[in-house]
């Protein structure tokens, strides 16, 4: 994984060498880009020693630009991380101004961007900074922290940079890196997250799905070169770059949007936790608590996955089965009943599966299965996509194979 690490001028920059070490321990290549004010807090010599690469800081450095231009650096990155991120750099990124190398890379990259803010707590709570944070998040930029505690200025509050190990762990989960192009030219439609079924204007039925698994799968498919359409229920996750994202609320909206997109799909992966039953009719006005008991009549939501698998020209179809018991039995019966090509079975409940950053699953298909023990959802998603691609090409035959250069040793 290639990380451009931007270091800006805050006292927390003294933690940068430790952050570089933590990122490299996780197997990342780190290219540091410092701003001029960062050099007041930490030396380029120390950072070059820990990163093993020459430090970049000047947009107008002809020699460095000739070796790898700012645009090449922006493309090289799987993630751009700015840590520490000052109030100033947040404001610049919001405005789109690019007076130096780091802000130019932020403007030119298609990779996920993560900022770890670090500043005095009054600067952090200033409405200008909070407004900038909201805009950055709305644009899909990840804001990591800040933590609350004692600050270098002697005061206490929110504004401390997160610990380097926490930043490294989060950032290494943001990108699955560039794949080998296994799904180049293929279209993959992914559903993710929960649905939300209205009871009245202020209440709804939903479930604990966070959307993390589906989003990780969409990213992993995009990393393998696929055109990805991510159809997502309401989640607290930024829209991943490099794909079409369609936000929906109800199961019926997810059903309609999926069927609008499905004709172009080679592969359909249903990772959404679609609500099973919705209120027969949502009330127009808020329900009053006049009675001791109340009941809501429910009706089955349409089964999106089964409806796609039943199409005459169905894409390669992959379902998920979240179960609290008899996981494999239930999953295999769903595989058969819904006529799927594959199903990913996972145990949920007791703090497993939902709203976590890791997961363990078994993947089942007609005459086989493969276990994937607990690992980060980003890693699991990469492995699942490789397995799906393998079975997709096996099912579709040689015509569907990606163009591969075969180097044969003995003929
Ligand atoms: O039947 P069950 O809900 O357990 O099946 C889970 C699988 O079916 C998941 O892949 C889920 O995304 C999909 N599903 C669906 N539409 C529904 C219910 C489930 O696409 N209404």
Structural overview:
The protein has helices at 16-25, 44-51, 62-67, 70-76, 87-95, 101-108, 121-125, 127-138, 164-172, 212-223, 251-261, 304-309, 327-337, 377-396; strands at 2-7, 29-34, 79-85, 113-117, 142-143, 147-150, 156-160, 187-192, 197-200, 203-205, 227-232, 244-247, 267-270, 277-279, 298-300, 316-323, 342-347, 358-365, 368-376. With 411 residues, it is α/β, with parallel strands linked by helices. It folds into 2 domains: 2-171, Rossmann fold; 187-400, Rossmann fold (3-Layer(aba) Sandwich). Strand 9 (197-200) and strand 10 (203-205) form a beta hairpin. Helix 1 (16-25) packs across helix 9. The longest helix is centred in the C-terminal third of the chain and has 20 residues, at 377-396. The radius of gyration is 24 Å and the shape is globular. The model is unreliable at 403-411 (pLDDT under 50). Bound molecules: cytidine-5'-monophosphate (C5P). Cytidine-5'-monophosphate binds next to helix 12 and strand 16.
